[in-house]
Design goal:
Layout: E1 5-9, H1 13-25, E2 29-33, H2 36-45, E3 50-54, H3 62-71, E4 77-82, H4 87-95, E5 98-103, H5 108-123
Parallel strand pairs: 1-2, 1-3, 3-4, 4-5
Length: 124
């Protein structure tokens, strides 16, 4: 079975690189992207199994990205991550189809659990 492909969209280079390295070492096929427009282009052509999406970014926030993905017809599974999540934001993200909303800094165990839950739901 091929490894899950995971895209990490985060404007913070250190955070993004750390998550991608951890996921790669954990057996996932991971790629990091800094720019929303680049991520949307890649997802439009070859969508990953899971997108880990930062909520706060300079060019478009995570909620806008998630809305844009859905309007494009994308069914990519999304895990949102941010240091600034409240219950209202979490509910809105889930209403748009986010499978999980995680608080930064990301705990390794929490991230893996969210990925596994999303992947097992995807497999049916």
């Amino acid at each position: 079975m091929k490894p899950l492909s995971i895209m990490v969209l985060d404007d913070n280079d250190d955070v993004r690189d750390e998550i991608v390295e951890f996921l790669s070492l954990s057996g996932f096929s991971a790629q990091g992207i800094r720019c929303v427009s680049d991520a949307l282009a890649v997802i439009g052509k070859t969508p990953p199994d899971i997108l880990i999406l930062d909520l706060r970014m300079p060019d478009m926030d995570g909620m806008q990205v998630l809305g844009k993905l859905r309007s494009m017809g994308s069914t990519v599974d999304v895990i949102m991550a941010s240091g600034y999540v409240d219950q209202e934001m979490e509910a809105a993200a889930k209403a748009l189809g986010a499978s999980a909303v995680l608080h930064k800094p990301l705990a390794v165990e929490t991230l893996i659990a969210a990925i596994e839950a999303t992947a097992s739901y995807k497999r049916g």
